[in-house]
Amino acid sequence: MLQSQLFTKTIRHAPEGEETKNAQLLIRGGFVNKSSAGVYSLLPLGFLVLEKINRIIREEMHAIDGQELLMPTLIQKKYWEQSKRWDVDVIYKTGANLEYGLGWTHEEVISAIATNFISSYKDLPKAVYQIQTKFRAETRAQAGLLRGREFLMKDLYSFHANANDLNAFYQKVIGAYDKIFKRVGLKTVLTEAGGGAFTKEYTHEFQVLNPAGEDTVYYCRKCKFAQNKEIYNEAAHKDCNAEIKSDRAIEVGNVFKLGVKFSEAFNLNYLDAQGARHPVVMGSYGIGPTRILGTIVEEYNDAKGILWPEAVAPFFVHIIQLGDSPKVKTAAERLYKMIRQKSSLSVLYDERGCMAGEKLNDADLLGIPWRVIISDKTVAQKKIEVKQRAEKESRLIDSKKLLADLKQRLVMEKHIH
Q1: What is the mean pLDDT of residues 255-261?
Q2: The model's pTM
Q3: Could you please report the per-residue DSSP string of 280-346?
Q4: Which of 24, 190, 248, 278 is deepest in the core (most CB within 10 A)?
């Protein structure tokens, strides 16, 4: 894409009142626009990143036989009343007589849907998921994309004949989540937590240790013990003599064993092989794609801007034309066309007629992994200047070598995952 054709432009200074890196850099770079506290628009650059995160999530959900669907956001009061969650604090109520609630989660809806299709042990197990906008009346919407009132969530729901089958799938989801977070570049700590409004059982959160987070996690590097501050019990670590540490953390995913709470509320039952009736055993598993986006920026940044991991970057290559001589322009255009025609790599080409300093500063802020500079100097040497965003030094190579290196990076990425 030509950079002059981008819908957005960069902003020189950090937006007033934004303290977190993700809010500052995403707004400055033109990835998001803040409409109000906790409510953001994903602009074209931000949407490109979000779609790559969602693609990774979908691939790993399909790998464990999750089937995608899409449920309504507008949920009638009767569903919430059946589960006794109409009066929770986070729900937005709407309609002339407040007879609807905006979906902050979907256990009620999916349980009601499942009654149409699950009636026998032969119908189990099943797993369905959606990627959909959620609404929560957060009293302290802050920290950019880390705590919003409107946000995107991937929620997976599973249905089982018994607790053993649920437990096995629960571990399978944990494995899938591990793969997702590694692929997007996040290192997580699997942390025990309370069930909140979902379940009385302990649940598990995927936490990224980062000072921008609102949670506090107590953890041990040696034995992988980790608990959220809300339930922390030092005695649970008695079998290990290593030091327990505590840090702020960002929750990017969670998994819940719902048991039969919602199936009983919605009469979701099945008949076993002997004809006996049992409530379906359920699980619920969430990941926040928009929160992942914000967390990646909190983890990958420097004084100049964002450093996107290759797997989620809005573009893979950033071609920067320095100078407007015919030779430079021709060389830059030729390289742009070659990469697009001979590879599947996405390219942003900065052909704008502005100063070199402005172009380089914008490139640092946008954080595209591979930067390629075409200038009078490189044209004279019949080379191109290549620099990876996270590296300090650049190198001079020819265009064929660049294309081979870029293709090799893609092959390595696919082989790893």
Answers
A1: 95
A2: 0.95
A3: PEEEEEEE-HHHHHHHHHHHSEETTEE---TTT-S-SEEEEE-S--HHHHHHHHHHHHHHHHHS---
A4: 24
